[in-house]
Amino acid sequence: MFIVRSAALAAIVLCAVSTAALAASSRLQLIVGGEAYDGPPRFEVSFDGKPLGEGIVSDAIDTVSTGRFADAADKTPYVQSFDFDIPAELFKPGGEVRVRLLNEAYGGDGSNRDRNLFLAAVTLNGRAVTVSGLETRGTAADQQNELVGEFLLLRDGNMEGVSRAPAGGWPAPEVALAQARLAPEAPETPEPAPVKPPVAVAELTVPEASVEPVAPVEVAAVGPAEEAPQGADVPACNRDELYNVIGFNENSNDLTPRLEARLKQIIEDIGPQKCKVVVTGYSSMQGDHATNALFAIERAQNVLGYLKQAGLSFEKASASGGGATEQFGAEYSVNRRVVISVSP
């Protein structure tokens, strides 16, 4: 009798725990810049057609006294991050995120006074979509994307910035939490590369980011996978590795000589194999939250760009931002990193 009661109690507890996990709300994060004219821009955000809330870009650049967002060499002061909760009953892996400007204002031709919104990234449960995965939809069927650097421009309320779900769908909140807890740690000192025939590596000059950026989040597909030339004899991928790239400078996404040396080690280790490559960038908790998020994303994009320039073959490739984190250790420096996942 005691055994039966214990089993029943265990089942009740397990059910309660499972229900709690399934009922977890999802976290949506937006990275948004703005132009202010007679007040800052205000926007609304929805998920799968259901409104989630509104936000105000209070740090938007004043187009009357300061100038235009596009002309600012450093856009960071005019960018903010916004968090929204998606209730468990509304979450869908394939749901669309939509952002719409609510209070467009324009000073007229030649006035240089305007109120606009600039969408940089959408992150849901740690998976990020950056500007390359965003699109503009409006009343015109042929609405074209208008980009300002790494931002999607939303001029008025007749258009929406849309992020469709990435390949594989948005992760469930409990899955994202488990992945964060299981993220690998690695020493800061670069690992020695195995002795292999040298692989030619093209030099890459990384352009200076228009917004000094962090994370997350594939977070964001950066385009279709690169296919090997037809008829080429490309070895099948037998790698199942996680590579840590550590050593980014504070407030920087630049690939230093030390980081390039580490990437060359990784390229040599993978060799000519055609693998699936997922690149995730991180930043430390030091500094502004919105800036950290952009640092994370752009570090991942720069690393993937380097791998492509070096001629690495991909079965599929993506870059995402994991955002600001402390999961790799208490020191800021160990969290400013990129993790490269390579699998068949």
Task: Give an overview of the whole structure.
The protein is α+β, with helices and mostly antiparallel strands and 344 residues long. The protein has helices at 2-22, 173-181, 257-270, 289-309, 332-335, and strands at residues 26-36, 42-47, 50-56, 61-62, 79-86, 97-101, 105-106, 114-124, 127-130, 134-138, 147-148, 151-154, 159-163, 241-246, 275-283, 314-324, 337-343. It has two domains: 26-163, Sandwich (Lipoxygenase-1); 183-343, 2-Layer Sandwich (60s Ribosomal Protein L30, Chain: A), CATH 3.30.1330. The chain is built from five helices and 17 strands. The strands form three sheets. Strands 1, 4, 5, 7, 8, 9, 11 and 12 form an eight-stranded mixed beta sheet that branches. Strand 2 (42-47) and strand 3 (50-56) form a beta hairpin.
